[in-house]
């Protein structure tokens, strides 16, 4: 019972560390400087 609880806590801690690293690193790179929203012609709305 104690060993199972310990394994669960270690797994949750490892998942937390991985989530923190991914969050701190971010998506990487810079957002694109061109593109983005464009106005749609009426023909594409139907």
Automatic annotation (TrEMBL):
Residues 26-46 are annotated as: Disordered. This is Uncharacterized protein. It comes from Acidiferrimicrobium australe.
């Amino acid at each position: 019972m104690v060993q199972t609880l310990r394994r669960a806590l270690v797994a949750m801690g490892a998942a937390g560390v991985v989530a923190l690293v991914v969050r701190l690193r971010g998506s990487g790179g810079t957002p694109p400087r061109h593109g983005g929203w464009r106005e749609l012609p009426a023909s594409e709305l139907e």
